[in-house]
Amino acid sequence: MGLGLLTSRTLKSSRILHSQYSRFRPIVTKPKLQSPDASSAAAAAPQPETTPSPPKKPVGGARIHFTNPDDVIEVFVDGFPVKIPKGMTVLQACEIAGVDIPRFCYHSRLSIAGNCRMCLVEVEKSPKPVASCAMPALPGMKIKTDTPLAKKAREGVMEFLLMNHPLDCPICDQGGECDLQDQSMAFGSDRGRFTEMKRSVVDKNLGPLVKTVMTRCIQCTRCVRFATEVAGVQDLGMLGRGSGEEIGTYVEKLMTSELSGNVIDICPVGALTSKPFAFKARNWELKGTETIDVTDAVGSNIRIDSRGPEVMRILPRLNEDINEEWISDKTRFCYDGLKRQRLNDPMIRGADGRFKAVSWRDALAVVAEVALHVKPEEIVGIAGQLSDAESMMALKDLLNRMGSNNVWCEGTGTNPSADLRYRYLMNSSIAGLEKADVFLLVGTQPRYEAAMINARIRKTVRASNAKVGYIGPPADFNYDYQHLGVGPKTLLEIAEGRHSFCSAILNAKNPAIIVGSGLFEREDKDAIFYAAETIAKNGNVIRPDWNGFNVLLLSAAQAAALDLGLVPESSSSIESAKFLYIMGADDVNLDKVPADAFVVYQGHHGDRSVYRANVILPSAAYSEKEGTYENTEGRTQQTLPAVPTVGDARDDWKIIRALSEVSRICLPYDTLLSLRSRMRTVAPNLLHVDEIEPATFGPSLSIDCTQEINLTPFKAAVENFYMTNSVTRASKIMAQCSAMLLKE
Amino acid sequence: MLSRLASQRLIEVRQAFRLSAQVYRSFSTALNYHIDGPDNNPDLPWEFSEANKAKVKGILSHYPSNYKQSGVIPLLDLAQQQHGGWLPVSAMNAVAKVVGVAPIRVYEVATFYSMFNRSKVGKYHLLVCGTTPCMICGSREIEGALLKHLGVERNEVTKDGLFSVGEMECMGSCVNAPMIAVADYTNGSEGYTYNYYEDVTTQRVVEIVEMLRRGEKPPVGTQNPKRIMSGPEGGNTTLLSDPKPPACRDLDAC
Fold first, then answer.
1. How distant is the Cα of A723 from the closest Cα of chain B, in angstroms?
2. Quick one: which of A97, A159, A729, B134 could link to B139 by a disulfide (CB 3.0–4.6 Å)?
């Protein structure tokens, strides 16, 4: 946490200062470490000890919103006045004043437990130190955080916590990023007075992702609260009492949540650690690269921790608008797929049906030779679900210059419409879903399609008792929902106002309709969208101040592909293709490709489409390239390379650029920047990083649909949450998860 | 240096003199996690009996309908009485279903309270008070006598399934220490009784056990014939006369 970082930072900087003594590392004397001002210096940024104007900045970018000006109260933290809204706790007031209070059980996104007692502060006129995380701040309260009393109280708490905590930091995976370790630097003693036996607790089996060493547990109950409140699986609990207390599931049970990996992050000690990462690396050896996730359309902000050429682990990054501070298990644990099944050399399938590694020059020459000898309308390009916007732009330009306009992104259906952006974006934005009070999920299962968006819906349902109606195959969501029906019949009933759920939409203040992009694959998708838009129109879902018409996309490439206009000219072009250029598309049905077609597969994994390929061009995965992605709400974000590419692989757009040169068409960009300026002419929003470009027009522009609706029920868009793309299909961890968790 | 050595030595000596190797004493009859067994696994069906279903309704009527989970403790108690003194995991699941919470929330409660037995107990569950006043008056010897007479360990059930011995914290009869409480599960939840036998001696507890074995009902309360309830042995020794009225109440005299 913040305190730990600051402690380590101060320690680090002091080490740099003393680098001339680096051979003899100075041993910090105990009195200095134990004196109150040393700890406060470690706890907060160094600041002048003068009275006027609070010199500290809020901790961790804490923000305050005064909804009602009457609710402002003033408290004094270490003598400095702070204005906070009514109802905040003492700890939050201290955070806004820039004082980081040590804590274990308190977590800003979970309910308050108040059981670790580490956050004790002194409050004037209070006879005892108070637990600041559970104490509401009162007007005029004088809070003192660095008095000897507060320090002594915390030292006492720390001594009790360390009493039953094993001394196994050298073999603990949390070492280096452990809250207990960091805070014991400030509040712990170098010797214990506890001479009894330490307690030991039986480890629990929580599945293939979370490793437990329950003896290290300090009973902060963060994991219990996370599982109950955020993940929505009530499996974990606090069992027993007193010194025999332990976290567990009581009955043998795996944690079947798609967010279970987050308990690793919120555990302040090493009780819950990552099983795949166990004993692999220490956190200070790792290089962090702040990038984004592409395994689903959410675009969760992640940090890829790598050591040398290897991705060691993936952690979430805070982004309040997208993933808050959680990520799904698929995002977190798919990284071992980046090491398996990789394509590392250009390959050509020989006459015997076996691939042979060749040089880039030969491979590109072969491809260009074939491409020049087929008719333009027989050239087809398909972008994959992990493609970045730059490479899709290049692919489209290449094929257009060859004379073909049959290029699309997999998953957008046979006849995608890219004319109206609101028809493929989540218009209310992910954070905006929290304002909704009625949800209508049409043919989408957010829990499996976009776990982070499901967490938002669950948060809304918990916070405001929002009603959720669902049309689609029977599913298990982790919140209460009303299963309205399985197919378009129910949708039509609601559109025509004959269904009981209509009144819920009509009475709602901010109704939200979420249409799954699995429906793109249906023949009658225009009619279904028309029906959904009718509901939106009747229910006043789209207003100037609220746009509740949402489409939940399935993959990271789709939004950018449609923004760039990757729309095929003819929906059946694949059946007459002679030259098929597949850019990482592994979920397209290649059965209809004619046997004599020449298939080029450009991608990073030897996945499904490779079986049909004639030439393989190895490219970089999302952890190895700089690329632009647009998430389902239309937010542009960029990945950064964390590790070098594998073997002879190249960035996608560079391969296409090289191929264009060999085929004597020569695309007019040589750098990523000039490719991006080309992108600006097509979709300028793709250059506005971290911004949402909302859809300009609503359904008012859409024409009446005459298409007949097909009454076959909706299908689940995602069969197996853990395996949706070439990276996750290559991952051993994801395979274990689907074997163990999905069978339950 | 010398003082540190001395203190270290002292600690060693203290550890050597520590009485038993057992450092961790659990009052609960079972572990904090469940292990499937033939008579205790989630697949076994378990339901409240018809008579108890009415009681369940009565218990739930004490709480607002949106706070049904408040009734989890009385319901667990009822389930325990019905199931012969202990709670299999399927009974806890049944309670969870009745109050409408996740099973783990019920497990949390059941593991917290040592009065909920999560492993099998005897028809007569003998609970020896182990808190300070009883311990000073010899509850360890009482327990030892019981265990020796029945030939079992603590929390172990006799072969005939009649008796088990457990320990409990203070039951409020300190004036009649030492005491044991006997939970009688022979007659299901209708005839469930929970009796205190106070002022017991090592001989008397064995007599009580034998009387229970014969199906007799030993008189509850103090087992010391010279005492009447919690009065002193041999009659009152103080406050024998009527109290004198306090002078200050006599308002005329003031």
1. 29
2. B134
